[in-house]
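SEQUENCE-TO-STRUCTURE ENTRY
===========================
Question of interest: how does this chain fold, as expressed in backbone structure tokens?
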Amino acid sequence: MLKPKKVALAYSGGLDTSVIIPWLKENYGCDVVAVCGDIGQGGDELAGLEEKARKTGASEVYVEDMREEFVSQYLWKLVRSGGVYEHKYLLGTSIARPLLAKKQVEVALATGCDALAHGCTGKGNDQVRFELTYKALAPHLPVIAPWREWDIVSREDAIEYARARRVPISATTTKIYSRDRNIWHISHEGGALEDPANAAPDDIWMLTKSPAEAPDTPGEVAIAFEKGEPVAVDGRRMKAFELLETLNRIGAEHGVGRIDLVENRFVGMKSRGCYETPGGSLIMFAIRELEALTLDKNTLHYKQQRALEYAEMVYNGLWFTPLREALDAFFEKVSEATTGEVKLRLYKGGIEPLSRTSPYSLYSLDIASFTMGASYDQKDALGFINLIGLPIKVRAARAAQSK
């Protein structure tokens, strides 16, 4: 049996990781180093986290501020790629896991840990995301995954385990949603959401106003991009984290960014979750509108295909791989001209474009206009149609001869 002396635990202060600290000490007799990353989950979630971890039994606690790194080095790469999983999911949890696992490994190596641990269940995607990162960055460190070892089989069991050991938790058997929050989004799973026949209860939503309660007057916001990266809101340049916070407030006020999704997990099952991504929804909508101006057809369509692959790689935890790095290089090259501004109108959960401008726009008003001009000779269309239609014509002629 594995007998580590010091284990680095990916710690959030939630139900699962709170009970893991005493469980590790009881079952492995090891010291526990709790590692938490501030990626914009909010002050309430981080308040008192170090004290709580120590009271629960952690010998060392590290709370790392990774907010700017998360937005500029992870989220903006996702934005540039255009990756969306299964039409809806903007990958808020998926994109954060590699960064959290990377920081956990860094702390583990710096503090002399001889094992890593996480609180992901054996049914979820996160176990894959964390452990693939471990394999990429610290393949020599063994991994302890309590949900694959212990006798706890439900969140109710975990709550009872915590109560028996006086571990402070916020989850209860009557309000048992599992949530994950960062600056990009918040996810909601479990409870009434487990049955896709149930409508999402009104009380699950935490970031966004209900569209029915959103302002009756439409709002407007302008987002500026440089080389595929958001840089300004309504003409004011901001750092990455501040920009996203600003758009989160604007989007949430107008009920933007709610989705209810039945998704295909990497581990082979379907699951149902609800997500709120207000600022991210505005950004992803805006960059698609800008790319409609700046990318030629072949490049745009090819990029859309690669975006699907990128989204699946992020979802499946394949961040620290040569292919992801190569795709990022492609998206960075493609986005060299994705500079400009898009103005959006927001109304009761909906988004629509008001204007799109770019110094690199490929849109020619002279060519696109219904007014006949000198830039486009309509007679050229005849030869174009004849060439494209030649195989169709030959096939039709042969079919006629065989009758």
